[in-house]
Design a protein that fits this description.
D-Maltodextrin-Binding Protein, domain 2; 11 helices; six-stranded mixed sheet; alpha/beta; 325 residues
Amino acid sequence: MKGRSIKIAVIFLALVVCAATPALAFEPKTVTCIAPANPGGGWDFSCRSGGQLLYELKFTSKPVRVQNMPGGGGGVAYAHVVSEQKGNDNLLVAASRSTTTRLAQGQYKGFKETDVRWLAANGADYGVIAVRADAPWKTLKDLVNAWKTDPSKVAVGGGSAVGGQDHMKVMLLAQAAGLDPKSVKYVNFDGGGEVMTALLGGFVQVFPGDISEVKGQLDAGQVRVLAVMGEKRLPDELSSIPTAIEEGYDAKWVVWRGFYMPKGTSDDAYNYWINALRKMEQSPEWAKMRKQNGLAPFYKEGKDFEKFVDAQIKEIRELSKGLGL
């Protein structure tokens, strides 16, 4: 009887364990990455480069589908994800400091940062001040002097709406240079790709973008980067570009790049994607891609990333108030 009782107990324990354990762990199906802007900008880069590596590293069985969803500085995509994609385990969305900037300013009407699940940040981009290669300004000081002489003749094109990331960069520069921020002639576009087209076409004269957005045209000799908005110069072949601080203007803008996913997704899927992004960040393939596009190492995930987002939103909210935004 004693042996039979032990056998029954073992079977019962096994049944309890099986009942408490999911039959199958999360396995991605058809995965989509939403880039909240038109092709060519930083969000598009995050989806295409990240999606490519997730597939190459076998975290997805099929290539990741990239869906461009421009509008409202990321607000159209954010509203779509919160309102229509709840519980979608196979959806990733590109995010950056631009996302937290818009949330901090209340630009995503009716939505807040707790409406999504923040996955991870896997790289840092740097703000830059770029002009066409044949522009008359050789240095940032040259540009600022011309700007002060007649602000109406210097059109600044940005890939975000007024109050968004690109606008904030140029407002900070104007403030540091002693210019009236209200005198800045700012033209907004839906993403960095559109701004680059406008810059090369002569419709705007200045692009306060990110290094990853301009590097391709910089390598092709089509644009000149007057300054990097970081505390120190970028490494390797980009080290010849001075910082705005070196030029005498204390204007810094460092941009993290990463992903969020819809609320209501399973913890299995959430943890799967965090693990996938962590492994991608640690891979030599990502290190190479990051270097090719001027990104610096930067990684936060899960709860740490959520805390970082919360802190940045508070910081940007105060900064926006100081700039009258």
